[in-house]
């Protein structure tokens, strides 16, 4: 058996490393994503590793953000870049810690309602960022 195959622990079937389309549905919305994993030759269930779960979790987070009106990862990145902040600096200045924006922008974590509100206000009036920087320096 090569390193690109493995045995399913429950069925004993041979699985091969591959990618399959999977549709994620939540509250009437759906996204179809390509999910890496270990799959049998037919359409029966396979096994997902960390990489596959990361893809499905990000799709679900994106749907939840859309339903609740929160900014999606691309919107968070766009606003942060408009403010000319690194991910680390945005987390320090706006809150959430040094890795917060990395997580928001990768879809690992959906921004909170207060953070979404702050980002939208700064998006409309980027000059307000200077107030936060001034207060931080004081």
UniProtKB/TrEMBL annotation:
Domain HTH cro/C1-type: start-end pairs: 76-129
Organism domain of life: Bacteria
CDD domains referenced in this protein's UniProt entry, alphabetically: HTH_XRE
Pfam family membership, one: MqsA_antitoxin
Protein name in the entry: HTH-type transcriptional regulator/antitoxin MqsA
SUPFAM superfamilies per the UniProt record, alphabetical: lambda repressor-like DNA-binding domains
GO molecular function, one term: DNA binding
